[in-house]
Design goal:
- By secondary structure, this protein is an alpha/beta fold.
- It has a domain of 130 residues: 3-Layer(aba) Sandwich (Rossmann fold), CATH 3.40.50.12780.
- It has 9 helices and 11 strands.
Length: 266
């Protein structure tokens, strides 16, 4: 019997259970990065904070912030809290405004990320019999890889198309029976425009039911237009490299990443 939740225990805790879990993991995280990384230890000491000072969730405000410039200063690996021999993947931001922000993923990180992405895709409607057309660009950007991990975890079929070559995208989407699309909002609308130029109806000639769209800002008006044009349900996928990548982690799982920073701000 299919369940409503991907992980009901994780997704439906009572508020007091959630706060207890957040506090437990906050304490663990602070103690871990303080012990494992000289950069964190230096910043904590400069702020006059020790792991033992974290006794309640409100103590989060005692922790030093890491701004974008700080993350660039520690480029590329100075905030990694495990030996590099444990790092399986490297992702990074675009670096358009300076040195890129780097994220190093251990096996445990990838497992957590896959589960978070599966939870998101499942909530959006994806099931084992769906086919996800992944039109995010593969590479250092996290978007394509995150959606692939999540769909793999569910057991859905993934078309790892990547970005560009719009006419071929449409041919593959149509011929391979894609039922879900992962892409930017603007490209999703552009795909529809090109389809119509080719004499195709996005609603009738394709099987897209769900869109998992992100990597850029989009308005409610654009969302409505995409949904009406494709006849799909459009879900926003947002995130940032500093915190896992695509799909900012829900608080029930957000303290597990091996490279996780102290609270950051852009």
């Amino acid at each position: 019997m299919e369940t409503t939740y991907w992980d009901e225990q994780v997704e439906t805790p009572a508020p007091e259970e959630l706060r207890d879990l957040q506090l437990e993991r906050l304490k663990e995280l602070v103690a871990y990065v303080y012990k494992s990384n000289s950069g964190y230890k230096e910043r904590f000491n400069a702020a006059g904070v020790k792991p033992s000072d974290i006794k309640k969730l409100e103590d989060l405000e005692k922790l030093p912030f890491l701004a974008k410039d700080d993350l660039r200063r520690y480029y590329p690996y100075d905030l990694v809290c495990v030996p590099m021999s444990e790092v399986l993947y490297i992702h990074a931001s675009s670096g358009t405004t300076g040195k890129p922000v780097v994220a190093a993923y251990t096996k445990k990180d990838l497992d957590n990320w896959a589960d978070l992405m599966a939870r998101s895709l499942w909530a959006g409607g994806v099931r084992r019999d769906d086919v996800l057309h992944n039109a995010f660009g593969y590479g250092l950007f996290t978007g394509a890889h995150g959606h692939e991990l999540g769909a793999n975890r569910i057991g859905a079929t993934v078309i790892p198309m990547g970005a560009g070559n719009t006419r071929r995208q449409l041919t593959v989407m149509r011929d391979f029976g894609a039922t879900a699309l992962a892409a930017t909002p603007s490209y999703t609308l552009y795909l529809a425009e090109v389809a119509e130029e080719l004499g195709l109806d996005p609603k009738k000639d394709f099987r897209i039911k769900f869109g998992f769209l992100g990597a850029e800002a989009w308005s409610d008006e654009l969302k409505d237009k995409i949904e009406k044009t494709w006849g799909m349900r459009a879900c926003e996928q947002y995130g940032l490299t500093e915190v896992i990548g695509v799909l900012v982690s829900p608080s029930t799982a957000g303290w597990e990443m091996g490279y996780t920073s102290a609270p950051t701000t852009s």
